[in-house]
Design brief:
Blueprint (H helix, E strand, L loop, with lengths): L11 H6 L1 H40 L5 H59 L4 H13 L1 H29 L1 H10 L2 H36 L1 H6 L3 H53 L5 H42 L20 E8 L9 E8 L4 E5 L6 H9 L6 E6 L2 E2 L5 H6 L1 E4 L8 E2 H5 L8 H10 L10 E2 L8 H21 L5 E5 L7 H16 L3 E5 L11 E4 L20
Parallel strand pairs: 3-10, 3-11, 6-9, 9-10
Antiparallel strand pairs: 1-2, 1-4, 4-5, 7-8
The structure holds adenosine-5'-triphosphate (ATP).
């Protein structure tokens, strides 16, 4: 988190990224103004009632007729108290609704932005930390919306209104309040500065914990096999301890700062009370004014004190919002114009002297590659491990941008092609296919959301997965299926898309990364036959493979040579299972 992008009490970015917050701030300002009026009305009526009772008692005229003088005030006081309770209820409802709307809006924007930034950006990020941010991280904004923001508004409106009212009643007390009030914000700023650094440390500790935990859980079988599970449990305990220490440090600051603000407000009110008492004894002040000032003075300090208290409840939310803005402000890859009419399956693909680099790497992942793929052609890409074959497919998918050289689709730079329209015409089977939790059919329908059951079954059969029940549940990342089954479902997903594109008269670019790895010879033959059929249908196919059985299918074989061994640059600190 950069110091430059610090979240202010009311960050304009929050209003920009979540429109619901703007409506809420307006509503809260309205609630604040009405509350200020009710606070003054309540104090005035209370002073009327109390002085009325004392006047009646001292005059010995506490008869039924005299009570009616403050009887009205008493009834009105009841109304004001009820109105304040109603207002508090309305404020709470508005706060919860707005908070839910803002969180939903931020979550959606982050998800969309991350999707546009693409896998190459995601590769440089801590995924578990991102997950924590989008889930429990943003939930912490509740405290900010429901507690802090309303108090902040009250703290700007109520003290000003109270001081003006006090000035008309007793200027001396008004001056004392006006002089002592600014001390509270000064202390709050000091406390805020200390808290901000602490909250960031806590947030970082939480992110490290989430990252480490996700890493250990994912690698548990490996760690167990190599006898490192116990060591990891110890490491996890250390990371949790760090998080606990940071949380307690934050709480310590919160309690101490609440104490300081409370003390300051109490001393200030005591100062006003002493002045009032002395002047009341000397007869310089009437009882009603004295009571009014005594009731009103603490109301001037209360909202400011509460801002300090709620600041800590909202600090986690603000830290999460700051992190959310960092993600949202990551610039998208520069795409000067968006050409959306190109059909990936019907244009010539030209790769000219292509070089691709990943962040934190000195050596290019792919360098000096030149090749062409004519529409309807099947091109096999081979080469040693690490040569950059998958990187070439990532380039054709628009996931990485060339460091130099060109990637052209029908003569148009791929950078200038609308990525959404382009990817809609591409079917892809990655080297490590990713299945989402759900069912087999649900995963196949990612390729063609309109596919009915018979089309799903047909796609599975063409991918050599006729044995897989479409309703079979699939766990996270394809858990519950064998590696070969995952690959065949991924293939069926790609084939479903190809089929839909062909059925609607459009072309399709099929990108396959080792599509038959891990398959038995019978299934491999089935897949080979399907690829041969697609070739006759005019589907443009780029297949990365080492398998001799797939090579005869290709119109051309392109060999990607291995470059000198890449070296790593020191990257971001990483709390992985082996760290
Ligand atoms: N996300 C990444 N960040 C940094 N470096 C990467 C990333 N992905 C790949 N590389 C590096 O880029 C180079 C090319 O990787 P790529 O996966 O394209 O090779 P490949 O030819 O497909 O290898 P294989 O045949 O083993 O799948 C390798 O040196 C690899 O370490």
């Amino acid at each position: 988190m950069s110091a430059a992008s610090t979240v202010r009490p009311l960050d304009p970015r929050l209003l920009r990224y979540a429109r619901a917050s703007a409506v809420y701030v307006g509503l809260t300002a309205g609630f604040g103004a009405v509350t200020a009026g009710l606070v003054i009305a309540q104090a005035t009526l209370l002073a009327d009632v109390i002085s009325g009772v004392f006047d009646g008692a001292s005059g010995g005229r506490a008869g039924a007729g005299e009570t009616t003088g403050y009887g009205w005030a008493l009834a009105l006081l009841g109304l004001v108290v009820t109105a304040r309770a109603g207002l508090a209820w309305g404020q709470e409802v508005a706060a919860q609704r707005s908070s839910a709307a803002v969180k939903a809006s931020l979550r959606q924007r982050i998800t969309e932005h991350v999707a546009e930034l693409g896998p190459s950006w995601l590769g440089t990020e801590r995924r578990a930390a991102l997950t924590t941010l989008v889930t429990s991280g943003l939930d912490a904004l509740d405290g900010y919306f429901a507690r802090y923001l309303p108090q902040l508004v009250l703290a700007t409106i109520v003290p000003a209104a109270v001081v003006v009212c006090l000035f008309t009643a007793d200027p001396l007390s008004a001056v004392i309040v006006a002089l002592t009030l600014p001390l509270i914000p000064v202390f709050m700023v000091l406390v805020g500065l200390a808290t901000r650094a602490q909250t960031r440390r806590r947030w970082r500790a939480l992110a490290v914990l989430a990252h480490h935990f996700a890493d250990v859980v994912a690698g548990l079988p490996t760690l167990k096999l190599f006898g490192r599970a116990k060591a990891q449990a110890r490491a996890l305990r250390e990371v949790s301890d760090e998080h606990r220490r940071e949380s307690l440090a934050t709480l310590r600051i919160a309690f101490l700062s609440a104490l300081v603000l409370e003390l300051l407000a109490t001393l200030s009110v005591a100062l006003v009370a002493v002045g009032i008492g002395l002047r009341l004894v000397e007869g310089e002040l009437d009882l009603r004014t004295a009571v009014l000032v005594l009731v009103l003075a603490p109301e001037a300090y209360l909202p400011l004190r509460m801002v300090g208290t709620h600041f800590h409840a909202s600090a986690d939310g603000l830290a999460a919002a700051e992190e959310a803005f960092r993600v949202l402000e990551t610039p998208l890859p520069d795409r000067p114009a968006s050409e959306s009419s190109i059909d990936p399956g019907k244009v010539r693909l030209t790769v000219r002297d292509l070089e691709v680099r990943y962040p934190d790497r000195d050596a290019p992942a792919l360098a000096g590659l030149t090749m062409t793929v004519q529409p309807g052609e099947t091109v096999a890409v081979t080469g040693p491990s690490g040569a950059g074959k998958s990187t070439l497919l990532a380039g054709l998918l628009g996931f990485v941008t060339p460091a130099s050289g060109q990637l052209l689709a029908g003569g148009c730079d791929l950078d200038r092609v609308d990525p959404v329209a382009w990817r809609a015409g591409v079917a892809w089977v990655p080297q490590r296919p990713y299945l989402l939790a759900g069912t087999v059919a649900g995963n196949v329908r990612l390729g063609d959301p309109e596919a009915d059951r018979s089309q799903v079954t047909a796609a599975l059969a063409r991918a050599g997965a006729a044995d897989l029940d479409p309703d079979r549940p699939v766990g996270e990342r394809g858990a519950g299926l064998s590696a070969g089954q995952v690959r065949r479902v991924a293939l069926a997903r790609a084939l479903a898309r190809v089929e839909r594109r062909l059925a609607t008269g459009r072309g399709c670019l099929l990108l396959l990364d080792e599509p038959t790895a891990g398959l038995d010879p019978g299934t491999e033959e089935q897949v080979r036959a399907e690829l041969a059929r697609l070739r006759t249908c005019g589907v443009t196919t780029v297949v990365v493979t080492h398998r001799p059985t797939l090579l005869p299918l290709a119109d051309r074989v392109v060999e990607v040579p291995l470059r000198p061994t890449p070296t790593s640059r020191p990257g971001r600190p990483f709390a992985g299972a082996l760290a």
